[in-house]
């Protein structure tokens, strides 16, 4: 009896007050989880406002002051108004029009850089707008890059738990943002423009449903464009699944021809290749960057045939058999600039007979 009483007393004095305190909180949390559907994508980046306003001032004051004065608070308001308190599946590209109008600025001649599947390499090459200005090097892209955001009907108006992916609903805040931003960016392209594609992907270096094909290529202003340079970059140590003139790159080339654009296509464009090599300094693709080593007649190191340097001009003819790409590399670098080096490709049969091919001349360096 006494024990029962003390249990009851304990409940009244301790557990009840705690439970009654807890109940409203639990109800609120339940209400929130009921409202907040769980999406596949990450929730709104915490401190979104501070991040965007901070990025905005960093851009206009430090990264690219040439864009001139902008009102970063007003830019944040315009960004927020596109999605806050809204159903995260009902945000359209046009909802960001005020934001685009406030952030838009010129992209310098010859500095446009479009891409698919190569964002990190693009960013390194672009070097914070110093070398190139891809979309995320413009103010509008810079502000949103790498962030997640979406609305919620109640509370703070933002869903910090999860946001829909494009597979879940097409008209989500991020997808709609990047669509209108890509369209606006494409319209600013002028002069020689560039497209970096990834030759190591297996599902299409030029995806016909990608942002470049759907929102950028279709919005280029042809009269402003001199030439389109396509760069197909393979990963070092990665597969070489696509190259200029084949598969989806050929499709892109045909599309550009039909649309009347001048273009060039380069596999493993050297300045970008050199940047990739920073992470693979001892890889054989990186040891010697002489253009000769990128010529198609040179097979991989493992199957290198015997090559003879027939003559160098104005030096006396020499004959050398090359053991490896590295050997070729060191020979080439031993010549002063502007020496003409003549090669003859020689195939060696199983009986060790040698068949000479045509001479090929190059300038060393
Ligand atoms: C910037 O925009 C905010 C919000 O729209 C406004 O209150 C403020 O006066 C503007 N500042 C300037 C300097 O125009
Ligand atoms: C842009 O590229 C074209 C063609 O190479 C060149 O003639 C022009 O001087 C370049 N303009 C700038 C600003 O770099
Ligand atoms: C290129 O594609 C490969 C294969 O999908 C990927 O591993 C690599 O990170 C991509 N390269 C860049 C620069 O994004
Ligand atoms: C791309 O390369 C990888 C590795 O070599 C290979 O497994 C894959 O089948 C290739 N894909 C295509 C479409 O060629």
Properties at a glance:
single chain; 15% strand; disulfide bond; 12 helices; 3-stranded antiparallel sheet; 365 residues; 2 domains; globular; Rossmann fold; alpha/beta; ADP-ribosyl_cyclase; 4-stranded parallel sheet; signal; binds 2-acetamido-2-deoxy-beta-D-glucopyranose; transferase activity
What's the arrangement of secondary structure elements?
Elements: H1 2-35, E1 41-42, H2 48-63, H3 72-81, H4 97-103, E2 113-115, H5 119-126, H6 139-144, E3 162-163, H7 173-187, E4 191-198, H8 211-216, E5 225-233, H9 247-258, E6 263-267, H10 270-277, H11 284-287, E7 307-313, H12 325-334, E8 340-348, E9 354-363
Parallel strand pairs: 2-4, 4-5, 5-6
Antiparallel strand pairs: 1-3, 7-8, 8-9
User: What's the alpha carbon Rg, rounded to whole Å?
Assistant: 30 Å
The first-level CATH class name of the largest domain: Alpha Beta
Overall pLDDT, averaged? 82
First-to-last CA distance: 101 Å
* Number of separate helices: 12
Main beta-sheet strand count, sense and barrel state: 4 strands, parallel
Ligand species: 2-acetamido-2-deoxy-beta-D-glucopyranose
Fourth-level CATH superfamily of the largest domain: NAD(P)-binding Rossmann-like Domain
Total beta strands: 9
- How much of the sequence lies in strands comes to 15-25%
Organism: Acipenser oxyrinchus oxyrinchus
Protein name: ADP-ribosyl cyclase/cyclic ADP-ribose hydrolase
InterPro entries: ADP-ribosyl_cyclase (IPR003193)
Family: Belongs to the ADP-ribosyl cyclase family.
